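Forwarding these from the shared drive since the link keeps breaking.
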Amino acid sequence: MFSTTHQIPSILIVDDSTAILKLLHEATKDMGEVFFATNGSDAILIAQDKKPDLVLLDIEMPDMNGYEVFKKIKTIPGLEEVPILFVTGHDDQGHELKTLELGGVDYIQKPINISITRARVKNQLTLIEQKARIQKHAHEMALLVNSLPAFVAYWDAQDNNIFCNDAVGQWFGIPAENMIGKHASEILPPIAWEKVKNLIHLAPNGEEQSVDITCRVGDVKRFGQVKIVPHTEGTLENGYLMLINDITSRKQAEQTLIDEKERIRITLNSIGDAVIATDTDGNVTFLNPIAENMTGWCLGKAIGEPIENVMPLVDADSGEAMRNPIRVALEEERIVGMALNCALGKSMKSAIAVEDSAAPIRNHDGQITGAIIVFHDVSEARAMAIKMTHLAQHDSLTNLPNRLLLRDRALQSIKQHATSNQKLAMVMVDLDDFKSVNELVGHDVGDMVLQQVAYELQKELKLEGNLFRPGGDEFLILLSNLSSSIQVTRFIQKLMAIFQSKWEARGQHFKITISVGVSVYPEDSRDLDELYRHSEAALFSAKDSGKNQYKFYNQGLEKKLQLKQELESSLKTTSGRKSFEIYYQPKVNVHSKNMIGVEALVRWRNASGELIPPGEFISLSEESGLIIPLGEYVLTEACRQAVAWKESGHELILAVNVSIIQFEDSKFLSMLKRVLEDSKISPHMLELELTESVLAKDIEYARKLIEEIRLLGVKIALDDFGTGYSSLSYINGFPLDVLKIDQSFVRNMLRSKTDQTIIAAIIQMANGLNLKLVAEGVETQEHADELEKMGCEIMQGYFFSRPVTADTITSTLEESKSIFKDMLSSIEP
């Protein structure tokens, strides 16, 4: 209240008389904190330190008089306004007048009267408290005014500025301190001043009005609403208060609304759809140009007309009048779509197909104020939809129903046959080796042949919509209402007879045979999926049996097909590939009694957890081409395992089988390089095992590819030697590293002199060609002993170990004494 650092007032008493000091202290001790000084110098120091709220100052003092001390105190920062009461023993008016002229607020006459002194001091403290309160209120009021989001200014009667709260000049670019004294016409923009000047003249009449003005400071444009409050009473100078509220956001919103309305108007007039709006009674309030063209009504004549007059609707099928969706939208207060067969017009003859929807229009309170309907001409679209439906359901080359329509018709047939004693047959037809026709004469001629086949089948068999072309060189036929399978057989004989003659296209003549697979409902199929799958399995069987024949479905075909599908599914995903487990069969050097390598062998565990033998799934993977991703997976995982063994201190030669399908793949070499790089395996640790059939199919291609593989540092082994196309004339020309004696010779060598002689010849040939030798299928001690005597040191077979997991190989390698050394300790060196 008094000082920013004191809770109660502080009083400084200055007098060189101890007696006077005591009296003054007695008079003031309960009014605040009291400090004393007995000379002028001490008084100045105490004033600088304590910043008193009131000073009682003696005039007559030895070092400097009270007038000098007064002047010194008034120069101290913060004490410029401190009230000072002079204490004097002079009773003449000259001293009294001088103290008041100097700035003293009052004086105390000696001798000291305590009551009078208390009264004078109390009056000053009260004035100090009131002044502080007034200053506080003034500060708060100024803070409030300056914090208002509006422009507040006071002007005198001559329009000169007295006060303004725009400290930084955001409204007119002139800060408040520079605005004082300026005429309003110098502050406000000319147009704004003209508006405000008129408003000022109206204000004294008590008419509360406002005007909107625009002002710009730099790139910032503001809109303001000006109000004038006149002032002619009280202590303030006559004039007026000017209040300017910022209405920029409102103006921008209004402008945005105007722009949006214009944009909507242009949009509605520019879009390709017709738009009609109505009131709550369904009377037209708006049409855009497209609606005018489609209805034949112009906007001026249509306004106020019922929607049915302007937009009559009929059923495109029956021609009956239809209720306009506008009515439903208004009654049910929801969006309503037009019927699919809706047409605009009074009769079917002149009507055009239309579609779209109607919706109620609501105001900001959610109340419905009308409705709007948006529609467009769909005559061409409906015609196109019919055409597209046909194209979607028919083969573009032959115009036969495709797989989509096949499914629909087959389901209908199955539903019909489910409640009858008749049978339904699905006959799947595939043109044998049609790929070679395309390769020989080109796809254009091939397509002409397919068109001829489709035409002849329709003409000769009279299938009446039951002939389908799912794709490629495959056709499918549905035979309904059969009483026996003999009818199917007779039909197929007639079908195959069509292909006895040659086909001709662009002067080319072709002989085409077909393979046919048949499945019958409900004899061997319960539903459409089984019917299709079983006919496909029968077709595969016909092709596997030599083609140009037909087969009926049996359960063996189904099992093979299911296995193939499951195999394909397993190879498609990373998680599926984990169902393929890699086993390793050791290769042993019987002299050193050490494991020197392993052969990687893949096993497949199907979804049921059953381990499928390689003989069942390897051939399937080769037939379908799945051997390529499967082979890459096995090679990759085996190489990673070989690197892991090497890092643990056991370097083994890794043998991996390569099928003829893999070997003929154009990307095989690049795949091999990628696996070598990714797995970080040393190339000399990898040995690829090829069969003689791989080499014999294309000798030059095989020789070139093997040379490129060996340039990488990878070894080549010839597997199952002696059982295939063995010919020393070309074997000698291949850059091989290893020969593997086929297990069929090893298995019978103890009972057959012929097999023993063949083995001896192979060993001699390998030594002559400087090739390493491995004997497969070693199952007994006697076999191992005999092979060792004949000069074969490296062997593999059940006698040493069956194919085992990588963990088992790792455990064996880590044992201090190899299991194989223990097993071979009885073999004579």
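-- next protein --
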Amino acid sequence: MKAKILIAVIFFSGIISAQQTQKKSDETKTIEEVKLSKKVFVKKSDRFVYDVASSPVAKGTNSFSLLQQTPMLSSTDGKTFKIMGKSNVVFYINGRKTLMDAEAITEMLKNTPSENIQRIEVITVPGSEFQVEANEGVINIVMKKSKTNGYNGTLKMNNSQSYYNNPSSGIAFNLRQNKWSFNSNFNMGSYTEREKYTLTNGNSTFRNESFGTMDDPNKNYGGSINIDYEINKKQSLGFSYNMRYNKSFGSVLDMTNYENGILSNKTVNQEDAQTRNHNFNLNYEVKTDTLGSKLSSNISYLWFNRDKVSLGESFPLTPKNAYNAFQQAVPQIINNYAANIDYIKKFRNESSFAIGTSYNHTNTDSDTRQNDFNGSQFINNTKLSNHFIYKENIIGAYVTFERKFSDKFSGKIGTRFEATLSTGDVVGKSDIGFERNYNNLLPYGTLNFAINDNNNISYSFSSRVRRPGFGQLNPSRTYFTPTNYIQNNPFMQASKNYNQEINYMYKNAFYANVSFNYADNAYGQLPLQGTETKIQRDKDGNPLLDVDGNPIKVTTKFLRYIRTNYGNNKQLGLTLGMNKSWFGDIWTTNYSANFEYATYKGSVTKDPTSQQIPGDTEELLPFSIDVKTLNTFFQVNNMLRLSAKKDWYLGVNYWLMPSREMEIGKLHTQQSLDLNIKKIMGNFTFLFEVNDVFSQNIDDIRTFQNDGSFNTVRSFQYRREFNINVTYNFGNQKLKKAREVKSANDAIRSRT
């Protein structure tokens, strides 16, 4: 009997044990299922996170194309990005701001394989710890990581056919061995840009028209080296170096000009330019506890050098015109020295406190020289030759506190203080110079409320300063024709910007954003029409006289695009978007619609850079801005998986930007349809793309004033493009890259 009871107990114990085992197995399966349904696009405290490693769009392309598929981001010119169609972008890689000029960033992104990226973080309103300006948003690209030793790499070759054929190639190599981590990349390529221009300006009694093309051949070489060493479990030391060299020799702008419908002359501008950019950063980091608190410090050096020489010639096509020419050299050297110290203290209740300070010293040297042809030789034009030296010191400090009040509610508050001391002088010209010292206290705050698993809402505000770019301060000119040109302005002042946003997200797929931005003392590039009356002089500078003994004068009408402060602008925006996969990830969509009500108000009545030789005069037509407009932007990105093996993909992307009003005038409708097909074969990925299928991405800006004056700029850039891209991945694809490092040069790169 006891034996039977024992057998029964064992039997029923086995059943119970089996049930428990089955229950645990089900729980395990449930957990595994949760892992498999990883959220690709999520809202976190102060940022949106796009986990591209879990998305099918991330293989076989480059970082630039991947960013074009990222929610909230858009690019209409194939060179720059905007967040929600409005905010300018500052790029960080692994928490460190890129130490390159805008063109170098574009080349770097187009030559960085998408497979190397783990996630993309979009920060629409950066906190006090970020060194950004105005309404700039932050894109932080986080590279893949692993703790395994080994190496990996990527080879990439691309051929692009637009008006010209443009080949490029690159290699990225990564190595990790115990405490050492090393990664580097090198890319090279050549491309020739072609643009077709139509320029007009005038009023009811006069009309200037210019038609022509620009061909700009370029050769690019770029790369980076990053080394990270773990001294011990608490301390790390890192070094990074980035470089870019661009050579553009033989650029030609060829324009045919008409006055009141009558053929006037032909102008040809030939240009040779070289750009060099070298950046160095040394970082030290120490962990102060097991919760993640740490102290980090950086010292950085940036050297930027652009040499540009040009020859502008005007060939007469009517008897009344004569041959004219000028030589121009516009070099620019920028030296920046920077340092920062940051400390973040984390607490067990998931709160954190951060404090930091930074110092930036920038010295720019721009020795512009212009020589004009006087009929027999070139002589120096003292009015347009300027040796401009600009020095700027920015001392910054910030403090932030972040608190998680509950599982649903969290917030972050902070402030940043910046003291700016700057001087600008033109050597030998005491009337062109300034000294500016100003301080700014820039508060920041954000509140985040997770209503439940499917709904999240947040509010953010910040204030920032926008300083002019260094090149914009150099009082030099960039010519389209002798009477149509861009005029830089050393007297531009910084503007103050205030930003607010409310974000709502549903099921980590649908989002809505309401924003308000206000810019005080805003600046831009605005058209000024006028007339210039000059006394004709001989080769020795003596006035030429008519039969009555009076100086012979010639009056010329001009259009001058001057960079200057004009007033203020306000922007109230609404963005609706969706990022979602359908039918088991067969169809991946990224759709967005931006609506913006904007007002621009101000005026420009003078050119502070204008210098007249005694006897010469200049008259300007005031430019008034009083714009109230509703601007819209629509974007749809589709990725279709064509095979069960996940080796064929089709991309169909389209964006539309209807006509919109801006400070400078009305930008007419632009749109682009882009198609691509991707084939994955082991470690090889083949990508075929056609961009701007119907050639509708054209820049066309038209300006009309109440006094009857007008001007237009139409630029056709041949953006229809066929690309063939081949990528090969080799080595251990789970390799860890260098740790996240924040650079001390954070406030400087976007202004070079």
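Confidence is low (pLDDT under 50) at residues 1-37, 735-740. The two ends are 93 Å apart (CA to CA).

- D.
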